[in-house]
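It is worth pausing here to work through a concrete case rather than discussing structure prediction in the abstract. The textbook approach is simple: state the sequence, then state the predicted structure, then interpret. We follow exactly that order.
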Amino acid sequence: MTRRVIAYRSGSHFYVSQEFNGDRAEMRQFNPKGCRIKTDWVDIPPMFDGVTTLEQFKDTVRRVETLYGYKAVPVEAEHDLPVTEEVWMLSCGALLVETRYGSSMVECLAEVAKEYGFKTVRDGDYSITFRAKSTDGHWVSWFTIIPSLKGARHIKGNNTDQANIWLGETRPDMTPERCIAFFEEINHTLGLFGEDRVEPSEWIDPEDWQIIANVHDAYTDARYTGKRECSVTRAINIQWDTDGQDVALPTELDIPDGIVDEDEISDYISAVTGFCHTGFQIERSGMHK
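Step two, the predicted structure:
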């Protein structure tokens, strides 16, 4: 079970949530029938998008506590961040991984690079540049990761053609499976999900992938593009019961994977906003129910 806390920096102090142990998917592996958590962690960071003030942070943490079935615990100021499995920090209106077991993201990414035979150049804890051997045998920069930025802004650099790295020639050990595992490690380390994920197609040239994977067209290989078949469930036409309060609430919500039963969806809708409702419709993969 992954142990996580959520933090907000204010001057020299940190406001830290209670520890969230695992998520719905992890809990169901241990106790399928007794799982009280109503969401997976992948759905938590988007809840903090646009959150900038301490009060907004505290309100959103309370919503997360509700989804976890936890009793609300006041968020108090602390001088230091706790050393736990994952600390997620609110940064510029986005929730990002700050540390893992006390190590910064740059330190963790350096370990990933070492595991896969790449070198790195670090700029403190701000950024880290991955370096690989070019076709003429020199170490050259491939891409730079800035952990404090979200999603596509995380990485800047060149693909393997532009950097003259050509992994298909210089790194025969980087099989398709190993390339995928490499980028999966980066995504896991940075806590990237969905559209924010880093895919091989961004940093490996298509012709290079065709050599690596022995395929005729890289863009027809799902391993390269990262395109995955998935079904989407949404609650639509939600009728909120705000008890007369003037509150702006969404009429549609994406439902996390694993929440299928209509009663569970109903509970999730109320838990994620903190308001009751009088009804909704379910849309699954474009079909209405």
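Step three, interpretation. Residues 3-101 form one domain. The longest strand covers residues 233-241.
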